[in-house]
Structures are given as structure tokens and as C-alpha cells.
């Protein structure tokens, strides 16, 4: 029978074309064995059971074909919590944590009203609800994504302060107003959306494709923003270096009286636009 150490070594070689080959192999072993990494390191000579080996090999095969590791194991970490994910939702990125940091700091102890436009897995909405006293509304055009978000809210114990709405952008809540609005909408220009076997191409195109210039969804949302935001409000809008400047210009032309600024991510890249109005 193959041992834990042999399985890990073989999988690392199999996945060698992936930058995270060993890390992915370790992750899959944890799930297949139901054991932490410390146990795997200490008991490398332990034989794998046939069931564990079959599960592990299936996971490695999916990753070898390009499937992101988060989809293989069915979860992804975000802001210190684990979120269920599948092919219906975008995998939460660490860069998005900057928007959550900003929102939490702005909310403080207030019973704020927050809107998360295009919630996907619910990572932003659930995290803000868990870290503040805010009431969070979240929208998505995908019913499959809303099922994932609703499940995550229940798992994390924030379902009472998270309401999920099916519909396009802010349409389901267009008659309400909010203290904080966060939008992480599709911002990749259509021509730049990756193709398989690039792992990003396994994510829903609906969550990636931002139209010709990457700003199609933001352009449709922009006109609704003045009516959605309270007199003292914060708007946070994620993009990427190729599109963030254009997004900033779009918001500056729409949100009169707001202070507009562009902020960077962990890598020092321009990542999101912040719009704040104080009255």
C-alpha cells in the first residue's frame, strides 16, 4: 500500500506545473484523510486506505486539469473565515479584504445599513455582518450564487442580519438607502477573460466579464448610486490596474460631492475606488 509520504511526493510531482503544487497536494491530503498537516508530517509512513487514496487521486486529477484548488475542496478562506464555494461563485480573493477593512472602520459600532452588490459567495456580506452591528442586504443575478451565500450566512451565524435578494445589481433594493455600499462586479474586459486550462477560466464568466472595457456593470450601477447612498455614506468599488482609473473617472462624474480616491492592494497595485461623502 502507498504511504502518506509517498502519496504526497507523487502528487507534488504530478502537479509540478502548478506554482502551488506541494501546498495543493497537502491540502488535498488533509481533506482525504481528515487529518491536519502536523499529523501528515509526523505519520508519513502510515498507509493510505483505498478510499482515502481514491479520494486523494480524484482531487489531484481535477487540479491537474486546471480546476482551482478551492473548487476541488469546496471552500476558500477569506478574512479569517472559511466559505463554501463552488463553480457558481467567484473564489474570494485576499485583495477584497481591503474593502472589508475600509467598511468595518467606517461602520464602527453603528447599526449601519450596508449593501453588497453582486455578493457571489456572500464573503463580503457575511464578514461585515460578523464583524460589525450592521444590517446587510446583498444582491446577485445568479440564483445558484445566492444559494451559496445563504448557506454561508447560516453556517457563520449571521443569517439574521443578512438579507439576500435575487436581481440585477441594485434593482431589488432600489427604494432603500444605505450607509455603506460595496460592489465587486465583473471588471475584466471581455477580450481578456482567461481560457482553460487557466484556473480563472473555471470561475463563472458572469462574475468575470466586464464588457468591452471592463466597466459595463459599473456603468449600469453608477446612475443608481446617488439615490442609494445616505447623506453620510461610503462607497467601495473593486477593479484592477487596467480598469481602476476609468472606474474612478466614472464615479467622479456620477457621485458629485463625494471624495474619490484610488487605493492599493497587498501587492501595491491599484485595486479599488473609495467614494466618501460627509454631511
Description:
With 279 residues, the chain is of the alpha/beta class. Helices cover 39% and strands 19% of the residues. The protein has helices at residues 4-14, 21-33, 37-42, 50-64, 69-73, 97-107, 123-131, 143-155, 216-222, 225-228, 241-254; strands spanning 75-78, 81-84, 113-117, 135-140, 162-166, 178-183, 229-238, 259-264, 270-277. The strands form 2 sheets. Strands 5-4-3-6-7-9-8 form a 7-stranded mixed β-sheet, sandwiched between helices. Helix 7 links the parallel strand 3 (113-117) and strand 4. The longest helix is centred in the N-terminal third of the chain and has 15 residues, at 50-64. The termini are far apart. The mean pLDDT is 95.
What descriptive keywords fit this protein?
279 residues; alpha/beta; 7-stranded mixed β-sheet; two-stranded antiparallel ribbon
SSE blueprint:
Elements lengths: L3 H11 L6 H13 L3 H6 L7 H15 L4 H5 L1 E4 L2 E4 L12 H11 L5 E5 L5 H9 L3 E6 L2 H13 L6 E5 L11 E6 L32 H7 L2 H4 E10 L2 H14 L4 E6 L5 E8 L2
Parallel strand pairs: 3-4, 3-6, 4-5, 6-7
Antiparallel strand pairs: 1-2, 7-9, 8-9
Helix pairs in contact: 1-2, 2-4, 6-7
Coarse structural class: alpha/beta
The radius of gyration over CA amounts to 21 Å
Tell me the strand percentage band. 15-25%
Strand order of the largest sheet: 5-4-3-6-7-9-8
Give the strand tally. Answer: 9
Summarize the structure.
This protein has helices at 4-14, 21-33, 37-42, 50-64, 69-73, 97-107, 123-131, 143-155, 216-222, 225-228, 241-254; strands at residues 75-78, 81-84, 113-117, 135-140, 162-166, 178-183, 229-238, 259-264, 270-277. It is of the alpha/beta class and 279 residues long.
Amino acid at each position: 500500500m502507498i504511504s502518506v509520504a509517498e502519496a504526497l511526493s507523487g502528487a507534488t510531482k504530478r502537479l509540478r506545473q502548478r506554482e502551488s503544487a506541494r501546498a495543493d497536494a497537502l491540502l488535498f491530503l488533509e481533506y482525504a484523510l481528515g487529518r491536519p498537516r502536523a499529523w501528515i508530517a509526523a505519520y508519513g509512513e502510515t498507509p493510505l486506505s483505498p478510499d482515502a487514496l481514491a479520494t486523494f487521486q480524484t482531487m489531484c486529477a481535477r487540479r491537474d486539469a486546471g480546476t482551482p484548488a478551492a473548487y476541488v475542496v469546496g471552500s476558500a478562506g477569506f478574512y479569517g473565515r472559511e466559505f463554501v464555494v463552488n463553480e457558481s461563485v467567484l473564489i474570494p480573493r485576499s485583495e477584497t479584504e481591503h474593502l472589508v477593512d475600509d467598511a468595518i472602520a467606517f461602520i464602527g459600532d453603528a447599526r449601519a445599513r450596508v449593501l453588497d452588490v453582486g455578493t457571489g459567495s456572500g464573503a463580503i456580506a457575511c464578514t461585515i455582518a460578523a464583524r460589525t452591528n450592521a444590517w446587510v442586504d446583498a444582491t446577485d443575478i445568479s440564483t445558484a450564487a445566492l444559494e451559496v451565500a445563504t448557506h454561508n450566512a447560516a453556517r457563520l451565524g449571521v443569517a439574521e442580519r443578512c438579507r439576500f435578494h435575487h436581481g440585477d445589481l441594485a434593482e431589488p433594493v432600489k427604494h432603500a438607502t444605505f450607509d455603506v455600499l460595496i460592489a465587486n462586479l465583473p471588471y475584466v474586459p471581455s477580450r481578456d477573460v482567461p481560457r482553460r486550462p487557466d484556473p480563472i477560466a473555471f470561475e463563472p464568466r458572469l462574475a468575470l466579464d466586464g464588457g468591452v472595457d471592463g466597466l459595463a456593470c459599473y456603468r449600469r450601477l453608477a446612475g443608481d448610486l446617488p439615490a442609494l447612498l445616505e447623506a453620510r455614506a461610503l462607497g467601495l468599488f473593486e477593479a484592477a490596474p487596467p480598469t481602476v482609473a476609468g472606474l474612478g473617472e466614472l464615479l467622479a462624474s456620477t457621485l458629485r460631492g463625494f471624495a474619490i480616491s484610488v487605493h492599493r492592494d497587498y501587492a501595491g497595485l491599484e485595486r479599488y475606488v473609495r467614494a466618501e461623502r460627509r454631511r
